[in-house]
Amino acid sequence: MLKTEKKIQVVENGGVTAPKGYKAAGVPAGIKNGKKEKKDVAVLVSEVPAAAAGVYTTNAVQAAPLLVTKASLEKTGLLQAVVVNSGNANACTGEQGIKDAEEMQELTAKVFQIDKELVGVASTGVIGVLLPMDRISEGIAEASRKVSGDGGVDFARAIMTTDLVKKEVAVQVEIEGKVVTIGGAGKGSGMIHPNMATMLGFITTDAAIEQAALQAALRQITNRTFNRITVDGDTSTNDMVLVLANGQAGNDTLNPGHEEWPLFVEALEYVALHLAKAIARDGEGATRLIVAEVCGARSEEDAEKVAKTIVGSSLVKTAVFGADANWGRLMMAVGRSGAEVDPNRVDIWIGSIQVAANGMGMEYDEAEATLELQKDPVVFKVNLNVGHADATAYGCDLTYEYVKINGSYRT
Amino acid sequence: MLKTEKKIQVVENGGVTAPKGYKAAGVPAGIKNGKKEKKDVAVLVSEVPAAAAGVYTTNAVQAAPLLVTKASLEKTGLLQAVVVNSGNANACTGEQGIKDAEEMQELTAKVFQIDKELVGVASTGVIGVLLPMDRISEGIAEASRKVSGDGGVDFARAIMTTDLVKKEVAVQVEIEGKVVTIGGAGKGSGMIHPNMATMLGFITTDAAIEQAALQAALRQITNRTFNRITVDGDTSTNDMVLVLANGQAGNDTLNPGHEEWPLFVEALEYVALHLAKAIARDGEGATRLIVAEVCGARSEEDAEKVAKTIVGSSLVKTAVFGADANWGRLMMAVGRSGAEVDPNRVDIWIGSIQVAANGMGMEYDEAEATLELQKDPVVFKVNLNVGHADATAYGCDLTYEYVKINGSYRT
User: Fold this and answer.
1) ipTM value of the model?
2) Of A97, A208, B4, B26, which residue has the fewest beta carbons closer than 10 angstroms?
3) Is the confidence at residue A198, as pLDDT, over 70?
4) Which residues contact B284 (CB under 8 A, 6 or more apart)?
5) Which UniProt keywords apply (chains A, B) (predicted)?
């Protein structure tokens, strides 16, 4: 997909503050467990108002911060700051939840002396509990004091919930001979499923870009990245990905008519895909990333259905955990995906080992297949042989640890 | 749903041979592991050809026995015998698989001296491996010799794969003053074992009934019973439910115009629901049955979407395993179900404890809610408050044992 990836340079240890004109911080405010052990309030701010775009969960139950952020962004098309708390989702909290999300906006706006509608708000954590606004307030004040040009890493840490590793990345491309940087941070873990999961993504760039073009680009790349991962099939109430573009790189404003538009979109997709895969790999209890590459489909939609069904199948996920070469489960997933398939044409590979041809099993070395299933990532390739479209989806294995984590999440 | 349930009498220890004119047997033929330890070939036969109906998996990959049985049944509308093997699904076995299923038909037809198209064939077990036809043949011969009027229990045992308990039931109703008996046997739902496929249901009755009416009734009750359970969300290649009605009760032929048609359909649904719930409760690694009762929906389809999303959610299933009253996960499931919902109107109960009203949490006794979550079944009630339709779905908790069974099958 990333034809010109060679033009895309990864910035070592880069994150949301890698692009010009952004500062961030993350502090422990005692939201997570009442104790100030883990960072749980994060702030990101741009020197100037940035063209902004957002995508939100498809869940009919949407958390207060999403509703508040969406309303502001649709009105202004701009963001200059983002405030995030982890440990409490501010979801299913009714009118008070909306008031609290708006207060987070106002508190952040006041510190940076900007319009409150230029502040994006995000929350992630337990559903149905009101935010401890006193702690939130202290956290915002402290984080705002601490924002710095290398605070991206603290921002990435402060938005984590059950994530085991922070998720951030940054890349650079040359546009009009000028260096354009794109950085991102994300969190995931549970309730991850195609169509925006308990997933938060924040992407910053110093590129100058038209807001409408940025929104279109975000939606396009989201469908090929964040919407192609699953951890447990559950779609959360709080998913949101925000992109800020503050124009500090000094390039002419980008739009689809610009010669280097495709390069920018590919760089944006690179950042989104990196975060999406990091989220899948760090799924609750996961030990390995699962990649399902499907080709030979009638349409990309069909290929996506099959790929998502494979990475979403509990039986495929447990087979990976147990390194068990059960290709019958892959056939099952292909069959129930809803895609147009001819069972007698399906070819299946586990890593480099072909295990099925024309829908039937082949002679293969069990030990080699097991080795492929012990790799990270585990790669399944399926050729439907009914067309020419392809798609790739990402997931993780299902383990004892997932059951343990979710059998007692709140305790 | 079963308004006249009081008229439905359960037959103690009843199964597929409880109705008049049916004999059955189950024998160990060495299909499961080469050793003749567990029963794995079952035969059911009716004195006379029976009006018959069938429903089959929606998986695009369908096993040979389904294709063979479907073809025969669509042609004749009758069955006089059913032959089943466990231990091998005869799925993803190509042309040879079809030949083998047809040979099972022929072998059984020969013993009972009936037309081969009057024999239904079902298989459940390993996918992608050819049947050991020598053993199948011996098994059919032996089982056919042993068929008896009280062989229903052996039939129920021989169709089991990783099921922990046999699943059978029988009921009686009076129609035209004549006793009509309906019996049934079933085995594990979902892709219950790493390589094992699936849910099989066999229902017998001595009622006289028009074939078209029987097919319609089966489809109707299946949508409210077998199609409302989930274990792991994976749909197998071998699911099949068959109903035989041999008319030995001596009633006038039933059809929807018959005064007591509703009573017969309710009795049929009682049998199907009993088997379906038994299958869900015996789901892989399950410790408890989960019942999701949804009301106040705009349509029964919407109510069903919500109920099935709840019992299918990994996060709800793990919360039940951990007895964690995490009602936010129920709100999440309601929201992602695809049903028309107003998040601000949703009321939720865990057992008898209301935990959410108008989409928000309520004050409730955590200890009492935990007690409700330790009961079997665990009952969730959701009132969407946007309409008057309802539906109930059935599932089971997600446990370490599920991961163990599916993750370490070959190790």
Assistant:
1) 0.78
2) B4
3) no
4) B162, B188, B190, B192, B193, B231, B232, B401, B402, B405, B406
5) Acyltransferase, Amino-acid biosynthesis, Arginine biosynthesis, Autocatalytic cleavage, Cytoplasm, Multifunctional enzyme, Transferase
